[in-house]
Specification:
- The structure is a single chain.
- Helices cover 13% and strands 56% of the residues.
- It is mainly beta.
- The protein has a single domain, classed as Porin.
- An eight-stranded antiparallel β-barrel has the order 1-2-3-4-5-6-7-8.
- The longest helix has 23 residues.
- It is globular, with a radius of gyration of 16 Å.
- The termini are far apart.
Length: 171
Amino acid sequence: MIRTTFIFRGILGLAIGVAAVICCASAGAQQQQTSERPVSFGIGLGVAAKPGGGLGSVGLGTLEFGTPWRNLDVRFDGAVMNWPDKISGGRVTSLTGNLVYSRRVGVLVPYVLGGIGGYAQQGMGMSLGVNGGVGARATLGRVQPFIELREHVWSADKTHRATPFAIGFRF
């Protein structure tokens, strides 16, 4: 289980590095406007790793608002992460507010995001936490598929955390 945590940390670090390089690369003549859409929502499903809890499932709902600042949007997420082993905490529900920085590269839009929110863990009550991650979406008309890898931490000693990987669609 410790090995799984190191693998996910390595993947997250690599993904953040790749996203930083892509986002900082010059887009040349393809300059993004203030925002692609003023308001969009998305849904996603995937897997979530939790130290000591193995792999579980995650369901994600997003609501994103464009801002007047170039490449920067505000996004609110609701997520439910569930592990079948009751000893590991069972289920975690979160509601987070995030800033999303994205940059178009052809039909691909890589992004980095981070924010704060509330996390409710079964039997533990509500806690304040932080999250950050990377993702990419493709612009293929009105429906935009996306993939996303994030890290959520909701305790000062970092013992309560999860790393979800989700695949979904943005509308």
